[in-house]
Amino acid sequence: MTVVEIGRGKSGRRAYALEEIGIVPSRRTRHQDEVSIAWQIDAYRFDLPLVVAPMDSVVSPATAIEIGRLGGLAALDLEGLWTRFEDPEPLLAEAAELDDAAATRRLQEMYAEPIKEELIGQRIEQVRAAGVTTAARLSPQRTVRYYKAVIDAGVDIFVIRGTTVSAEHVSGQAEPLNLKQFIYELDVPVIVGGCATHTAALHLMRTGAAGVLVGFGGGSGQTTAAVLGVAVPMATAIADVAAARRDYLDESGGRYVHVIADGGMTRSGDIAKALALGADAVMVGSPFARAAQAPGHGYHWGSESHHADLPRGTRLRVGTIGTLEQIVHGPSTVADGSMNLMGALRRTMATSGYSDLKEFQRVEVVVTASATPR
Question: Which helix H or strand E contains 202, and what residues bound it?
């Protein structure tokens, strides 16, 4: 670990972003058809190490079903428009037409509508009825209030996701969520996050979570660093949390907790590097906001962008480049890494000589010559 002196009173670690990392090919290569990118968490096996982020601009019940059929997992945001309105389509269309200057205020107004418990059940049941694995997200602040509706609807994987989630939240205003007790009492696997350090990840793993999210989410338009000053470059965060997974595996006598990189990945190369650094799977949003079926109609925003008191994200124009199937499996019509994400991952693994994801975590990586300390 390299520590840099910022000034006489403060030092800090050097940390690296994904764009500063390169994957090193080995002496052995493979045919990409002999590469497996399958991923299993708890009892659920997926053809792809892919979780599509719970954002209204990306995941609707219909797109969650389609992603499931393509081999991945999509998490529905249970605090989004789909659980606030019986028919959110007109509002989603309106969100795509808003002037940039008015977008944040109007999004705040839309999301001020109360969440309706009956819609939570209806949306989960809609996805479940299609025969794909269902995943749904709540924030830590609303988990206790709504989790029974989620479980009763038959969700398969429960996602507790916030900008930063800790196992030791302190509050004098209300009884905080006891993650360890909560997860222990549930009969479904829980994915929880985000976190960005070894210590925070280790504490989350000790709660009994099946998976831990690395990063602060929020989408490509998040402004968390500008608003809060909170930022940890993704490459370093993934490597630190992967080390926590190894330490917890020893500490617990063999219990494996999955590391899921969340955010900061817009291209296929970013996904490959996240997995090379130790992630078991990735949670991505912005690449799928560009799908023809995306609910955001070519725009992308996360839950932070409509926070009632302190928005930490903007609505971004991302455009439309192809169908969900083209973005996941190709064929690609562009050369920028925005399509055929999983085909590119297979080719990266084949080029570096690895046949499955666990092996690929051992691949050699380098810090590129153009990298600058962060």
Answer: helix 198-205
